[in-house]
């Protein structure tokens, strides 16, 4: 009986809303709560649904798919993940073992059926909203891509003035460092040594021929985050020409940064050197964190601290380091 009760508390489905215009157009999918404690996307989608249901907003061209809660188990628990991080190593699993594997087996075909993805997130420490861009066009083996101009032009209309690139290649370099550590002590599970562990929703979307942006709407629980997400959805519909909505001008003087290094937390007593906010500037040689044995982890050059997480699990991302990017939007 206890096992039956436990099973009944695990969600068995994803709630998906779909709106088809009667004229041809792009296929857009919007996700909320890929991480269960990041609820701004859920709130933004739930705010949009009454407009669509009442006819105050009409999808006239293409197809809009809304998934308010992409990870219902983590969302129900109010945690980042259920059994594992859905936004890492995202791919279909022929033999699903964890809850997120079963979600991936539904979510990945859903993503592949669309052309454009807007994924709404929030972050750990205070800071202003920003958008995560994919790579520039390339034919490399890690993340080949041909829609950089589309992503760039679209991103400029979403609202934030700050943009970040370099996710997957920086994460791949971090995986290489994990492998080197594991070769010495064998302490890290094999999954976080997987070269594809950094593949999340937008990376998967690009791998199946589409393009996408992760929009970080603000601090977890910030009541303004939902408004940031809702504005971004409406501007995406306007930019794609799916609904008759006014398109705001592109952001002026965008601030584009490139991730170049990820640092993992290696011990429970590792601590950050300051209560960092996202994109706090640091100087070359300045301590960003302290290892449990007193060793400083210093900035390799002048740059910025990104995604600082004082509560990171051992073996997981503790903070990223970024430098200014020469990339231009438009």
From TrEMBL:
It comes from the Bacteria. Keywords: Hydrolase, Metal-binding, Zinc. Gene3D superfamilies: Zn peptidases. Its cofactor is Zn(2+). Pfam families: AstE_AspA_cat (PF24827). Residues 24-122 form the Succinylglutamate desuccinylase/Aspartoacylase catalytic domain. GO terms for cellular component: cytosol. GO terms for molecular function: hydrolase activity, acting on ester bonds; metal ion binding. This is Succinylglutamate desuccinylase. The lineage of its organism: Bacteria, Pseudomonadati, Pseudomonadota, Betaproteobacteria, Burkholderiales.
